[in-house]
Amino acid sequence: MDAHALRRQGWTISAIARHLGRDRKTIRDYLNNERTPGQRRQPPDAFVPFLPYCRQRLADDPHLWASTLFDEVTALGYEGAYSTFTRALRRYQVRPHCEPCHASTGRNVAVIAHPPGEEIQFDWLELPEPPEAWGVGSHAHLLVGALAHSGRWRAVLAESEDFPHLVQALDDVVRRLGGTARRWRFDRMATVCYPSSGQVTASFAAVAKYYGAGVDICLPRRGNRKGVVEKANHSAAQRWWRTVPDGLSVVQAQSGVDKLAARMDERRRKVDGIPVTVAELADAEPLLDIPMRPFPAELEVQRTVSPQSLVSFDGNFYSVPPGLPGVQVHVRHRLGEDFLRIATTGRAVIAQHRRAPRGAGQTVRDDGHVLALERAVLASFTDRAPCKTKVRRPPSAAALAEAEHLRGQPPAGDPAERVVIDLSTYAAVADRLRSAPSPKEESPE
User: Fold this and answer.
1) Per the database record, which ranges form the Integrase catalytic domain (predicted)?
2) Per-residue pLDDT tens digits for 293-328
């Protein structure tokens, strides 16, 4: 108001600026009504260029996590913070409304104290509709292990949920965590305990003893008791599995979940009023050392021999003797050993190889298999000229005979065609017999 009053008195913009202690451009904007008193000039919204993409993604998938969408737009060039991004989502009302998701269960919850290094929670996460190239059926299997105190989690893809694959995935998880806690917590999975009683099986008790850990089994219908790993399952399903493309290999998918787990270590926590991250809490946990080699469980999977006499296993290829394309074989590997065996369905071992690193993409061939395959291929070669294609070869007599047989006509030259039955002869004989006199008429009286 002072600027407008002084302007009406004939003051110049420079004089008004010196008198009020403001910049000349500011005084000019107020005098031209380009700025409103009490309102700051808003900077351009960096979210606007990404608004169409966010609308399309949430229209395709209304339940896509904001954190997952934030990862995508960050990779596309968005430079704002996560809080600014979520505020923009709410301001522009990008996410479609879903009424069933707003229903509240209203259950009471309690926070369970977990001392550092005390417990690791394990759980299988079944992932529906995996890429067909994986060859794992209708579900992929991800074993997730989470430190109950800090919340750090790691996960490993497995081909199935049987006992050998459980041991292999569990060993990979604890090695990714940097050690094992004193206790392991599971729900009532049949490979760990007897579901009816909750008693740990003898085979898995040997595994726990090998790693120096105790086993705790959750009570029935008490999934909240291992809520740390359940939340990790939720993050892996929504932030990683939901965006896995069809053409991704198992090794690439494992790399993706490893990157997500490492990024989740950046989550902030507050302990006794001091801000820390999950990574700092996990690094301070006193974990137990693990053995150099995994528990020696025997892993056995079924594979099909390729036309190149190769068998795939753990992201690598191993040779077998030639002459077995399409045959089902069994690949056996004892965890911790440096070699594997390939056997037929009759349990006869046909190949043994040194095991390549998992997911290395190597082709391991035996020299004898290579020579035998070369001999088999060379033996199939011939120096005969190829058959001529531009020749005239009409149907043969045998083919024509078969065609006539199919049409219901007897073939030419059939003896049945030469048999002639003339019924006129029989008719003439019958007429003569009717007109001929009887024996009594012919005898004289």
Assistant:
1) 112-294
2) 999 999 999 999 988 889 988 888 999 998 888 899
